[in-house]
Amino acid sequence: MEYIMDHIKEICECISVFIGLIGLFMAVNEYRKSNKVKRATYIDQLTERLKSDQDIRDMIYVFQYDEFEYTEDFHGSELEKKVDRALQYFSYICYLKEKRIITNDEFMFFEIDISQALRCKDLIEYLYNLYHYECEIGNYDPQGNGIENYSFGSLIRYGKQKGIIPDDFFIKEKGHKHYLNFNL
Questions:
Q1: Cβ pair 155, 114 in contact under 8 A
Q2: Crossing angle (nearest 10°) for helices 78-98 and 153-161
Q3: Which end of the chain, N or C, is less surrounded by CB atoms within 10 Å?
């Protein structure tokens, strides 16, 4: 009789473990579904900003048709504010990709706008000027491995990784326009 009671006890323990595993599986499954919904909502919010922020939309159009002109009058203008707003947003999206907060599939929603912006010749000139200006004012890392924090860094790193940013971008004085005072 004792043998039967022990056997029943073991069966109950196995059933309890099995029920616990089923509960764990269901909880993990619910967590994954909830996470997918949250990610989809987040991506929707990011894409919605592209559609609803008029400054960003305007600049996407300007970049897409390579109508942006980087001239001496650019710095301090309203256009500079619009360009910086769009570039900051693009850099944020690239940062999310860089840190693997968004996946490559999710990044595809933004990739064409970002890539087209980086193919705009005068935009590269503007980014070049900002990068080298910030080098001049001393934004180097302690180990001397180059510039650590610079404007639109994630965007520039993405462009470099994809081969959109030209090789001479990081070399000062290679035939680029200079509208910032490099000799502070």
A1: yes
A2: 60
A3: N
Helix axes 104-118, 78-98, angle to 10 degrees: 150
Per the CB < 8 A criterion, the answer to whether 157 and 97 are in contact is: no
Question: Could you report the per-residue pLDDT of 63-111, keeping only the tens digit for each?
Answer: 999 999 998 889 889 999 999 999 999 999 999 999 999 999 999 999 9
SS3 call for 181: coil
Length of the chain: 184
**At 102, phi and psi to the nearest 5?**
-115, 150
Determine the 3-state secondary structure of 127 from DSSP: helix
Chain centroid, CA 182 distance in Å:
28
Confidence of residue 41 (pLDDT cuts 50, 70, 90): confident
The predicted pLDDT at position 136 comes to 74
The token duo for 31 is 């967590």
Measured between alpha carbons, how far is residue 12 from residues 4, 25, 26, 41, 184 in Å? 12, 20, 21, 43, 79
| pTM, two decimal places | 0.77
